[in-house]
What does this fold into?
Amino acid sequence: MPSREDIVELMPRLRRYARALVGDAERADDLVQDCVERALSRWHLWREPHDLRAWLFTIMHNIHANAVRRVVRGPGFVDIEHASAAASPADQIDRIALGEVLNRLYALPDAQRTVVLLVALEGMTYDEVAAILGIPVGTVMSRLSRARERLREPDGAAGLRVVK
It folds into this structure.
């Protein structure tokens, strides 16, 4: 059985995935904290043959999905502190390019974005992603393929495609 130190070793990966998932350092740290808290409080539910990393990523994914559902159902608000920072113009070309990539990434549907982040950012296999998200491997491949297509589309090309 893994120790709590094993969770500490996985913290940088959890933090990196959370940051990519929510796009904000403070919210990412909160998500990691919630994930670790839930894992430690449910330590007795972890089963030996399973991968600890996959278990923690599953917990994080479920916490994030539940939070997104609550936001969709509840009233929206604008955080003035973060709105002013987002409104300031980028001062470097690399920052602009990164912003465009992030905008395209965050424009993806949640299901596609999650698969892209787990495969590309975390380097997980399709089987691991399927286990974490509780979906078939074919669905992982399909979502990843559609996400890659959308990321490659030139601006304004998100409409209908010509089928031959």
Summary: The CA atoms of residues 16 and 72 lie 24 Å apart. Residues 97-160 form a domain with the Arc Repressor Mutant, subunit A fold (CATH 1.10.10.10).
